[in-house]
Amino acid sequence: QVQLQQSGPGLVRPSETLSLTCTVSGGSISNYYWSWIRQPPGKGLEWIGYISYSGTTKYNPSLTSRVTMSLDTSNNQFSLRLRSLTAADTAVYYCARGGAVLAYDYWGQGTLVTVSS
Amino acid sequence: DIQMAQSPSTLSASIGDRVTITCRASQSITSWVAWYQQKPGKAPKLLISRASSLEGGVPSRFSGSGSGTEFTLTITSLQPDDFATYYCQHPWTFGQGTKVEIK
Hints:
The complex is a heterodimer. Chain A is an all-beta fold. Chain A has strands at 3-7, 11-12, 18-25, 33-39, 46-52, 57-59, 67-72, 77-82, 91-98, 104-107, 111-115. By secondary structure, chain B is an all-beta fold. Chain B is 0% helix and 50% strand. Chain B has strands spanning 4-7, 10-13, 19-25, 34-38, 45-49, 53-54, 62-67, 70-75, 85-90, 93-94, 98-102. In chain B, strands 2, 4, 5, 6, 9, 10 and 11 form a seven-stranded mixed beta sheet that branches. Chain B has a four-stranded antiparallel beta sheet with strand order 1-3-8-7, with no helix packed on it. Chain B starts with a strand and ends with a strand. The chains are: A mainly beta, B mainly beta. The interface between A and B is medium-sized, with 21 and 20 residues.
C-alpha cells in the first residue's frame, strides 16, 4: 500500500522560507507526478505544482517566482520550498501522487503551516 | 490558464436524494477532469478520474459524466457518509468546492 508521509515545520516566520518533505513508501517514485497542494483554513484547494519522475517541474503561475520543487529518488522523497512567506501562505499543505491522467490518488496527511512572528 | 467554475457552492439534501454537481471549464479540456470528496480534517479522496472512471472501492452510487467544457458528478441515493465537500479538478486547477449538507 502506497503511503505518503509529510515532514516539516508547523510555524514559519514572515519573509522566511518554508521547506516540506514527502517520503513515499510502498511504491516507486518512478513514473508518477509528485505534487503539492494547499488549502487555507476554511477555503478550497489550490494546486502549487508538480515535479515529475524525470525531474520536470510545473508550477502555479501565481506562485512560480517563489516555489522550487525537488526529487530525491535514492530516498524516495520529494520536497517543496516556498520563499518569502506572508500570512496569506498560512494553509494546510498536502503532498500527493498524480498518475498518467494527473488525478491525485494518494495523499499525505497534511501539514498545517502557520506564518506568524 | 483554464478555470473551473463549480456549482452550486452549497447544496442541502436528504438521505436518498439524487444530487448533481457541475463544473464548467473556461475552455475545452476533453475529459481531463477528476472529482474528489473531502471530509473535515482529512485529505481529499479521489472518486473519479478521466471524467467518468470510478476509482476502485468507490460506491457505484457515484458517477461522473461530461466532456469538452461541462462535467457533472452525480450521487444517486445520498447516504449519511456522503455529506462532505466535493471538488472537481483539471490537472492544474481545482473548482471552488460544493458542500453537501443535511437538509
